[in-house]
Amino acid sequence: MAVARVVDPSGAEWTVRRKWVHRRLRWRGRGGSFELMDGASLVDAGADLPIVGVILAALALLLLAVAAVLFIVPAVIFLVELLIVVVIVGAGVLGRVLFGRPWTVEAHEPRTERTFEWKVQGWRASGKLVDSIAEQLRGTGQPAGGTPIAATDP
């Protein structure tokens, strides 16, 4: 995989890479966490009255079923989406090879959000271009001939 991380003379760190997909893929789930009740305290509370123990056991089974749905269903959905992405990327690579669609090479500097792109025919040529741009950035700090891309919000 053609990726180069270089530091230019001004100290800015650049990433030069061949782009496989033109959209950024990101996780769509929530980042928060939650805590579950301690099961031992539920059993202890239900030991004094048998009916309370039965109700608490039923609630525990219900919570277990809900937790299974909350974790297993998203995992299955994630795996299906991952399979779709793998198929699309594979078809894209096959299409690039069979139909000669150009590869996009990108140079990105995250501190100032500067991004440049180049279109190049062929896998080997794109790898050589990544190396060439990395050397330009390492030497001068400016990539030559790229198209500046405006920064976008994720």
Structural notes for this entry:
There is one protein chain. This protein has 154 residues and is an alpha+beta fold. It folds into two domains: 3-19 and 102-149, no CATH class; 43-92. The protein is 49% helix and 19% strand. Strands 1-2-3-4-5 form a five-stranded antiparallel β-sheet, with helices on one face. The model is unreliable at 32-37 (pLDDT under 50).
Distance between the termini: 24 Å
**% residues in beta strands:** 15-25%
Radius of gyration (Å): 26 Å
Order of helices and strands: EEHHEEHE
Tally of separate helices: 3
SS-based structural class?
alpha+beta
Strand order of the largest sheet: 1-2-3-4-5
Secondary structure: number of strands: 5
Shape: elongated
Main beta sheet strand tally, sense and closure: 5 strands, antiparallel
Number of domains: 2
Low-confidence stretches: 32-37
Mean pLDDT rating: 80
Helix content: 40-55%
